[in-house]
Design goal:
Order of helices and strands: HHEEEEEHEHEEEHEEHEEHEHEEEH
Number of strands: 17
Number of helices: 9
CATH topology of the largest domain: Aminopeptidase
CATH architecture of the largest domain: 3-Layer(aba) Sandwich
CATH superfamily of the largest domain: Zn peptidases
Number of domains: 2
Largest sheet: 9 strands, mixed
Structural class: alpha+beta
Shape: globular
């Protein structure tokens, strides 16, 4: 089974649901086991996690690379779980984020299973898209000892290497007004209308106009709004969930302070997740760039990613991590697609990276007295 056929099969599972996740994880586990790979299946809060180790044994002291992907997707209409092909495009929910990349990763794990100079740890998690951002399986796995010298999470990057990702500031705010009879709205102060105005104020706060070397601006999304408890009543309370992706050079505390400065607005709940940053000079990043360069025309670029990912779990544990995935567009949208040709190139790049890594690190070490040393962005070999 090649990566395209495997991706099509994965798309057919509605993995926005628990039943779909369980069925898809069972398929992933069975596919890997049918390739004579030793699979470990564990659960996190009732959700299935699939892990495989191949290549060098843990005792060999070889470089360890983590290939990380997720099975879950955001909800979609039923037809989006029927994959279709139009030219080079494989279309369907999760094609780009990230079942296409996951399929290619699974194939790449089989491709490198017989080499013995690099330990490869494949991790397939079920909750990267979960709203419960405070307790995800990747955080737990890392806290319980999942480690490597380098981690790649297969988020969409168009075959570029994501060395930075925005941080997350998820904020729930309440806006208050004055209730009145629905027939005399001028006698009240409509909290829903005020909430809309407050969101427009958030969009124009000073933090919203800042930029960095890899990002034009932060991202600000009104994700959810709830207000009103009767048809014939002017609403006096409205709550909004605002999803802010702040830049690596921004302080989420300062962003929050600016939001709190808006009149008649109260922050009732918030969550932050740190931005992801790894040095472009990290030896593993440079080795991956060389491997990717073998499969594409031109140089593999280091880019910033607007979306957050589980890469931060590894980075906070001192493991350099990047986002790297195939070409496509429309993730979380109605016509999400991934380039079929790029799936093959992505698979090849992962395989080349693993196979060439020992020689690359040996050359790197030979040029540095005392061997490789730590550089900004995480641990070193």
């Amino acid at each position: 089974m090649d990566e395209r056929v495997l991706a099509e099969r994965l798309i057919t599972y509605d993995t926005s649901t628990l039943d779909g996740l369980r069925a898809a994880a069972g398929f992933v586990k069975g596919w890997l086991e049918s390739r004579e790979l030793l699979v470990q299946g564990v659960e996190h809060d009732g959700l299935p996690v699939v892990l495989v180790d191949v290549g060098a044994p843990a005792s060999a002291g070889a470089p360890t690379v983590v290939l990380h992907g997720h099975l879950d997707v955001v909800p979609a209409h039923p037809g989006q779980f029927d994959p279709r092909v139009e030219g080079d495009r494989l279309i369907g929910r999760g094609a780009y984020d990230m079942k296409g990349a996951l399929a290619a990763m699974m194939c790449a794990v089989k491709d490198v299973a017989d080499q013995d100079r690099v330990r490869v740890r494949f991790v397939c998690v079920p909750d990267e898209e979960s709203e419960d951002v405070s307790r995800r399986s990747t955080d737990t796995l890392v806290a319980e000892g999942l480690r490597g010298d380098f981690a790649i999470t297969g988020e969409p990057t168009d075959l570029h290497i994501g060395v930075q990702a925005k941080g997350v500031l998820a904020v729930r705010v309440a806006v208050t007004g004055i209730s009145a009879h629905g027939s005399t709205p001028w006698m009240g102060d409509n909290a829903i209308l005020k909430a809309h105005d407050a969101f427009r104020r958030i969009e124009t706060l000073p933090f919203s106009r800042e930029s960095s070397d890899l990002f034009d601006r932060p991202s600000i999304n009104l994700a959810r709004i709830q207000g009103g408890d009767a048809f014939n009543k002017v609403p006096d309370v409205c709550t909004m969930d605002v999803d802010i992706r702040f830049l690596p050079n921004q302080d989420p505390g300062e962003v929050l302070a600016q939001i709190r400065s808006i009149p008649d607005l109260e922050v009732v709940k918030c969550f932050t997740r740190a931005p992801a940053i790894v040095s472009r000079r990290n030896p593993y990043v440079r080795a991956l760039r060389d491997a990717v360069g073998r499969t594409i025309e031109g140089e593999a670029l280091s880019v910033g990613r607007d979306g957050a990912s589980d890469a931060i779990s590894f980075l906070e544990a001192g493991v350099p991590a990047v986002e790297f995935g195939p070409i496509g567009a429309g993730h979380h949208g109605p016509d999400e697609w991934v380039s079929i040709a790029s799936l093959a190139r992505f698979r090849q790049a992962l395989g080349d990276f693993v196979r060439l890594l020992p020689s690359w690190l040996e050359r790197e070490s030979a040029g540095r007295p005392g061997g490789l040393r730590a550089v900004e962005g995480g641990g070193a070999a």
